Amino acid sequence: MPSSTTIRPITRQDLDQWLPLWDGYNAFYGRSGETALASEITAMTWSRFFDTYEPVHALVAESEGQLLGLVHYLFHRSTTAIAPNCYLQDLFTTEASRGKGIGRGLIEGVYERAQTAGSGRVYWLTHETNHTAMKLYDKVGERSGFIVYRKLF
Question: Is 0.85 topped by the overall pTM?
Fold first, then answer.
């Protein structure tokens, strides 16, 4: 990661630069145009970062006043541990920033905050076709072997 890059918590002043990153992340997963998230979801996601009641958090990578990436994570309880688990939910960097350690820096930022919170585990999901990201994930984490099932309503 370039030495001029800082990983830091998001601030309310970041909205104008966060939104294109958020839109890019969603477009990557097919949520754009007719399948885009409702604006109410984006507004609620943004507001959760600043609500102390919510367990949802965000970090950004910044260099020279420009946001290069984002990561969203949340803490939740588990029936198999006393300490909270940390779920890394969203990770995205600008195309120009890829391969420069920004994604790794954002993941490590979540690791630091999870350790500070007393969490014993950080975990995340990715799509099986996201081979580029998996090259990084295989270096910074381990595959759990679990398969995800879901039912949409």
Answer: yes
Assign 3-state DSSP to the chain and report helix, strand, coil percentages, each to 5: 40, 25, 40
Single-letter amino acid code for the residue at 133:
A
- State whether the Cα torsion 130-8-5-65 is positive or negative: positive
pLDDT (tens digit per residue) in 37-50: 999 999 999 999 99
Nearest Cα neighbor of 101 from 73, 140, 148 is 140
Enumerate residues 6+ apart whose C-beta is below 8 A from 69.
21, 60, 61, 91, 92, 93, 94, 97, 102, 103, 106
Q: CA-CA distance, 27 to 15, in Å (whole number)?
A: 18
Q: Could you tell me if residue 143 is inside a domain?
A: no
Domain count, the chain: 1
Q: What CATH number does the domain containing 45 carry?
A: 3.40.630.30
